[in-house]
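Worked example 4.2. Below are the chains of a multi-component assembly; read each line carefully before continuing.
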Amino acid sequence: MDKKNVSMNDVAIAAGVSLKTVSRVINEPDSVRESTRDKVHSAMEALGFRTNFAARSLKLGRYGCIGVVLFHLSGGAVDMIDGIADAAEERGFALTMIKKRAGEKMTLAEAARRMSQLPVDGMIFNLRQMVDDFDTFEAPKDLKTVIITPMEHPTCSTVSDDQEGGARMACEYFLNHGHKNVYFVSGKKESLSSQCRMKGWRAALEARGIEPPEPLQGDWNADSGYAAGLVLADKPDCTAVLAANDCMANGVMMALRDKGLSVPNDVSVIGFDDELYKTIPNSILTSVKFRHRELGVRALNEVVAGLEAPSSRSRTLVSGVLVERSSVKDLRA
Amino acid sequence: MDKKNVSMNDVAIAAGVSLKTVSRVINEPDSVRESTRDKVHSAMEALGFRTNFAARSLKLGRYGCIGVVLFHLSGGAVDMIDGIADAAEERGFALTMIKKRAGEKMTLAEAARRMSQLPVDGMIFNLRQMVDDFDTFEAPKDLKTVIITPMEHPTCSTVSDDQEGGARMACEYFLNHGHKNVYFVSGKKESLSSQCRMKGWRAALEARGIEPPEPLQGDWNADSGYAAGLVLADKPDCTAVLAANDCMANGVMMALRDKGLSVPNDVSVIGFDDELYKTIPNSILTSVKFRHRELGVRALNEVVAGLEAPSSRSRTLVSGVLVERSSVKDLRA
DNA sequence: TTGCGAAATGACAACGTTGTCATTTCGTTA
DNA sequence: TAACGAAATGACAACGTTGTCATTTCGCAA
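Applying the procedure described above to all four chains together yields the following structure tokens:
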């Protein structure tokens, strides 16, 4: 027959000491005589005392929690959350999470309003698609806000993979291996990742004075890559294909093969995310890999660093890595 | 030059009403005259008032948050979290999350201790591997606790995919199509999913009086499936292979093909998770799919339902679905 | 033994909200 | 206009913790 909630006062009475002494045992044990400390500890144990989060944070004026708003929950998001959560643990923070419901249209302002009523000292928005009030949004002045997004924001700190840079890197890799042009298969139109990857591809070609060919529209899945591959197989000038993810890259490769072409002998291919090896044995696909985990870690660190100065603003880019396999042929000499 | 924290008292003064009236405007607006309500609303707007979570929950004795402990963050976990988060939104709860750090060894007791110091009314443990104190663990008596795990727990409610049932279903599908035996490729040894799938496979065979052949050990990735496939290709009695996930199933299929065997003409294959179609164009793999999202929804609902009676206990199984494609040949007649 | 400074402990207010109960104001009817 | 019940508002305590400052107890030297 335990009491509903055991308070520090109950412990104090049981241990025959004052309320404040119990508080001290918890927060500054060294300032309490050992014998007293033991009495208090036994009392806590016996009554099953647990500090009350609400009262504690009310008094302290902080929560020890970072808010995470998931506007979108995709594959790469797992690793990112993993990074956020690990970094949070390390720094003694817990996470408070809310999520955009499917179908619901959530603005940044709406998300901030809801988050700021929850136990959070700062917040991270994971934003992979455009949102109406992106440019006009202003974060609460007392709540450090970091947005994970490839777009620059006028007032908030942002963290992002360098998707554009990754695409440029892949493109240059083709060009440096003697390819004269690079075709592109995009992901879903509304995806910012896809847009950035396309932008980088275009920029790399134009930097060398090459006119980018019409990009092929995909939807991230293998079948759309396959369809694109069938089209590309008929283009005689197509020696290099950059697909916006590995699944579509695989679709492209399968289509090329079905059309009697060989990768990399006839056509070279690069994908994104480096995950094909999980599904395809002996995968040969060269791929641009982003460090999603690192992205999460950076975002969290940025929030924590900004807790004291919420209005500070920074922009962090996490570079990608080209994982080389054998899907690109060297055409030089 | 705003005040650090705007309290209801500040709003009350600005609006020329009492503190309690402001509280009423927020919690029971109908009991306040419209003209008063407007004054208060303007004052709140002007001062940028936001209700203080700590004070509110201290008074109410509840948080409106459900704790989620991630012992393990895998692929399927995304959908599950998605389900938990959506269901939480729907019922007006936020999520508080902590995660086992890589390498760290966290027991249930340890997780419960940490969670119970955070703002939570109940908790969900996502547990995909065995943990030392599983059988002896007792949840805090005032905090409804639900464990997502295929194992039964003596005192806590549990929710799980029916992995064993799914494996049995796949096996029976083979047998009903005239196969006389089924080989099995497992996932990582320590994975409970893998163990359950293996158990179901074994049970289905034994129920028909068939001696299960030695299972082949994999590690979830395609390469291990490929290795298993090479072995299986040499077994003349091998007409059916159940692989513990789609990636390994694909590895098996590639190995069989490389050995000159055809799927499904020579050997039939079934996988788990139904995700190969994302990566392989025109995928033919029949697969057992679990509804991870539904799993999360059930877990959250179970917690919320048990908030008033934390010591209640239930066991929920979410059945799997066999997604039929053409990787299984009918050997009858 | 006495006196002293340091160490240990305690009393009390405060954090910002909501519940209880008392008081004021309103709209109606006599 | 007075009187009345209902609606609207307010005063004050309480939730469980920590900070401030006062008080008690301790160990040690004179």
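Take a moment to check your reading of the output against the notes. Chain A has a mean pLDDT of 94. The first strand of chain A starts at residue 65 and ends at 70.
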